[in-house]
Specification:
alpha/beta, pyruvate-formate lyase- activating enzyme, OB fold (Dihydrolipoamide Acetyltransferase, E2P), 3 domains, five-stranded mixed β-barrel, about 35% helix
Length: about 400
């Protein structure tokens, strides 16, 4: 468990504090937010505890610790405040400022309160950055040479950004934000993650028909294919509703790639529930996923549910799901062989530094030889081979 790992690691650094009393030890992130002052009580040599939303206050906390000699704990949820402290992008790349691809946080927190999830308790309720602030950041990135942006949020499609000169009721949803970014000169590819099925509106689906820059890839966590388990998880949708979203997406973007998250062995999961998940995986034809065996999070409703499924059975189910999705992913990759893909070249290949690598629209890595450095540019590459975790190609 994450909490146990944190306290284990703190035990390891205690000797460093003894050897150097002036050394400051800090604990930050979701576990820090969840445990708070309990960390200092259990490990008094910890100087600073801060949550995901108070990282920007770290300089002041360090100063306060030095001035008072007292441990500092701040795990509050100041709305949107930390975004005012974002540094300007000054990363050097090929003699100019900028990055080929950049991440842009547009919202924080979660208000869904799924029974298994600790995020609402550690990151707070959903809070969105104003529309204008996001557009200024993306424009700055584009001016510095960024070609692709990935919009980030715990539930990114719950984005509701206040519009400039508007009342509080005048907000932009994710669909409008995508339309605005589509107009920013220099941005040629747009991604976002992670989305929630309950917020996948028809307006958002229609953007896949209107905005070619929006990639043909959606990460849409379903967690289970059993309606009974989905209800116990408090996900707020059924498998039929989830498949309806998929059907509408593929109606406007037939080649769209769908990836998902799955929790295996949720309390009370039967073999019938698991088979329903396997059936959904085949019906939707997911081609990648993050699969996890359920782990109870203290303070969440699901942690109180009885769990009678043997760990061995959970491991077997996890393996079956992973093998199924890997098989489907390989089939998708194999179908891409012989096609020409528009690749954003990211730099040297990790496998072979003398080659280049880039990503396809559906987020597959392609390695290929080139007699010129095309980093930062889009080029057409014919896919020549499908490997286990990447594709091979040749410049057209």
């Amino acid at each position: 468990k994450a909490q146990e790992k944190v306290f284990h690691d703190l035990g390891r650094v205690r000797s460093l504090k003894r050897a150097k009393p002036d050394l400051l030890i800090g604990v930050g992130g979701c576990v820090a937010s969840q445990e708070g002052a309990a960390i200092v009580k259990r490990a008094p040599y910890v100087d600073i505890v801060f949550g995901p939303q108070t990282l920007h206050r770290l300089p002041q906390m360090i100063e306060a610790r030095k001035m008072t000699g007292q441990s500092q704990v701040d795990i509050t949820f100041p709305e949107i405040e930390k975004f005012d402290y974002l540094p300007e992008s000054l990363i050097q790349f090929e003699g100019r400022t900028g990055r080929v691809s950049a991440f842009v946080s547009i919202m924080e927190g979660c208000s869904k309160y799924c029974s298994f999830c600790v995020v609402p308790y550690t990151r707070g309720e959903e809070v969105s950055r104003p529309l204008g602030d996001v557009l200024v950041e993306v424009t700055r990135l584009a001016d510095q040479g960024t070609k692709e942006v990935t919009l980030l949020g715990q539930n990114v499609n719950a984005y509701r950004g206040i519009m400039e000169n508007g009342a509080e009721c005048d907000v932009a949803d994710l669909a409008l934000l995508l339309e605005c970014i589509n107009e920013i000169r220099g941005i040629e590819r747009i991604r976002y993650t992670t989305s929630h099925p309950r917020e996948f509106t028809m307006r958002l689906i229609e953007t896949y028909e209107k905005i070619p820059k929006l990639v043909s890839h959606v990460h849409l966590p379903v967690q289970s294919g059993s309606d009974r388990i989905l209800a116990a998880m408090k996900r707020g949708y059924t498998t039929l509703e989830y498949k309806s979203i998929v059907r509408k997406l593929r109606a406007v973007r037939p080649d769209i790639s769908l990836t998902s998250d799955f929790i295996i062995g949720f309390p009370g999961e039967t073999e019938a529930d698991f088979k329903a998940t396997m059936k959904l995986i085949e019906e939707v034809d997911f081609d990648d996923s993050f699969c996890f065996i359920y782990s109870p999070r203290p303070g969440t409703p699901a942690a109180e549910l009885p769990d009678n499924t043997l760990h061995k059975i959970k491991q077997e189910r996890l393996q079956r799901i992973q093998e199924k999705i890997q098989c489907q992913a390989q089939a998708v990759s194999q179908r891409m062989v012989g096609t020409t893909q528009h690749i954003l070249v990211e730099g040297a290949s990790k496998k072979n530094p003398s080659e280049l690598c880039g990503r396809t629209d559906n987020n597959r890595v392609v390695n290929f030889a080139s007699d010129f450095d095309a980093t930062g540019h889009f080029i057409d590459v014919e896919i020549t081979a499908s490997l286990s975790h990447s594709l091979r190609g040749e410049i057209v």
